[in-house]
């Protein structure tokens, strides 16, 4: 597989010439806006792709679908089949025969998710091609499976395995009967699965920097196994004696590493920082950036950092919806891991292999799911825990509801 990887899309251009003025007030695409308000990537600034479509498509083992196949499978892209939508386009639920890959009646055969590219915008086409380029070659239990694609006249579509539990983002931040709060054990299971996916990408076998790790790109199967999706911004890692890849600053505001924002130097440790942000979101039940929070709490990392390594204050950041059903020791270790991943100096962050090792130890811990009363008795902090929990519940009651708008990643309902 090594020869195939060497031909993948390389870093294209300096980071400093990418961001231009735009009109969108919030991010709804597949992760290319780092302004937090109004800047978008200009299609005019995107240089040609080094490899042709034919070269990329021929090197993959993906199924080539016709547009009519997918139109039939999704019932003509009916609105009630929409699973998610965003800057890339819309994602539809469909059904195909698991052997012949032909369209079948709804409710029969294999369920799929079909992402249909908006027909305006070259950047979207580049991300479509990058998705085929990477997921056509990479295989791992913690990466979403790309079944095939459609390239027919102006039509660009991608066909994925269906992930019935949807995105981690929905489970953490959406309210409703379908999206119940994730338990502590499930959060740690999802964190471990996502970490394994990133560790594989960083391995010698793959050498890929994901560049857009966030909750909406972590999808869950029926057993809450985590799989990474949306490889439109992934990059080949540095080769030879190089320590980084110099590239355009792209990703999602709130998740990008500080050194990448400042210099455009991209390394595997940039992904580690993003993982730290997501782990912190899982611990706190708060978004990486939330302008609906009180002043001083808009940026999750800045607000939570002082509490992560403080045993007396750790409860201030833990999600009240956990209702204390976690091990005090496990919560402290997870918080310390998040703090290590969020180091401002990339050299001080652990590798994803080390992150996996730490999370596996948390999974194996005998007291991982012990009751809050046991944890409180061991910690001598029962009173402070209750006060912190009451404050968190009051904050939740007073906060303005902010439901996420689906992104271009497959957000399954």
From TrEMBL:
Sequence positions that bind ATP: 115
What EC number(s) has UniProt assigned to this enzyme? Answer: 2.7.11.1
Q: Where is the composition biased (Low complexity)?
A: 35-46
GO BP annotations listed? defense response
**Residue spans of biased composition, Polar residues class:** 20-34
- Show the Pfam families listed in the entry: PK_Tyr_Ser-Thr
Please tell me whether the keyword Nucleotide-binding is annotated for this protein: yes
Q: Name one GO molecular function term.
A: protein serine/threonine kinase activity
List each copy of the Protein kinase domain by range.
77-362
Write out the entry's keywords from A to Z. ATP-binding, Kinase, Nucleotide-binding, Plant defense, Serine/threonine-protein kinase, Transferase
Could you say which enzyme class this protein belongs to? Answer: transferase
Query: Region Disordered: what ranges?
Result: 20-55, 364-413
Q: Which domain of life is it from?
A: Eukaryota
Similarity comment: family membership: Belongs to the protein kinase superfamily.
Which protein is depicted? non-specific serine/threonine protein kinase
Organism listed in the record: Acorus calamus (Sweet flag)
């Amino acid at each position: 597989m090594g020869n195939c990887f060497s031909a993948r899309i390389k870093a294209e251009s300096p980071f400093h010439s990418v961001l231009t003025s735009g009109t969108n007030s919030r991010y709804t695409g597949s992760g290319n806006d780092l302004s937090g308000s109004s800047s978008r990537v200009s299609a005019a600034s995107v240089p040609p792709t080094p490899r042709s479509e034919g070269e990329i498509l021929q090197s993959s083992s993906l199924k080539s679908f016709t547009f009519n196949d997918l139109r039939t499978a999704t019932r003509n892209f009916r609105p009630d089949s929409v699973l998610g939508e965003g800057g890339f386009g819309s994602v539809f639920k469909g059904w195909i025969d698991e052997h012949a890959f032909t369209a079948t009646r709804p409710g029969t055969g294999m369920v799929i998710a079909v992402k249909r590219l908006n027909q305006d915008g070259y950047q979207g086409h580049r991300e479509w091609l990058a998705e085929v380029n990477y997921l056509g070659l990479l295989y791992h239990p913690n990466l979403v499976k790309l079944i095939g694609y459609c390239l027919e006249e102006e039509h660009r579509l991608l066909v994925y395995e269906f992930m019935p539990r949807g995105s981690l983002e929905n489970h953490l931040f959406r309210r409703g009967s379908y999206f119940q709060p994730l338990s502590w054990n499930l959060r740690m299971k999802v964190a471990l699965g996502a970490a394994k996916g990133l560790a594989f990408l960083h391995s010698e076998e793959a050498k890929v920097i994901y560049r857009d790790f966030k909750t909406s790109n972590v999808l869950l199967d029926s057993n809450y196994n985590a799989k990474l999706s949306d490889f439109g911004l992934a990059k080949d890692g540095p080769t030879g004696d190089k320590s980084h890849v110099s590239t355009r600053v792209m990703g999602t505001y709130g998740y990008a590493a500080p050194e990448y924002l400042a210099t455009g130097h991209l390394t595997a440790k940039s992904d580690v920082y993003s993982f730290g942000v997501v782990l912190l979101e899982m611990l706190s039940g708060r978004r990486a950036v939330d302008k609906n929070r009180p002043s001083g709490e808009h940026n999750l990392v800045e607000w939570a950092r002082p509490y992560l390594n403080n045993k007396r204050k750790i409860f201030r950041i833990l999600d009240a919806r956990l209702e204390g059903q976690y091990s005090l020791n496990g919560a402290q270790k997870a918080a310390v891991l998040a703090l290590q991943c969020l180091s401002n100096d990339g050299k001080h962050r652990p590798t994803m292999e080390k992150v996996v090792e730490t999370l596996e130890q948390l999974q194996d811990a005998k007291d991982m799911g012990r009751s809050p009363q046991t944890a409180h008795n061991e910690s001598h902090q029962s009173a402070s825990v209750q006060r912190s929990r009451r404050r968190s519940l009051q904050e939740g009651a007073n906060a303005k509801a902010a439901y996420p708008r689906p992104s271009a990643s497959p957000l399954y309902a």
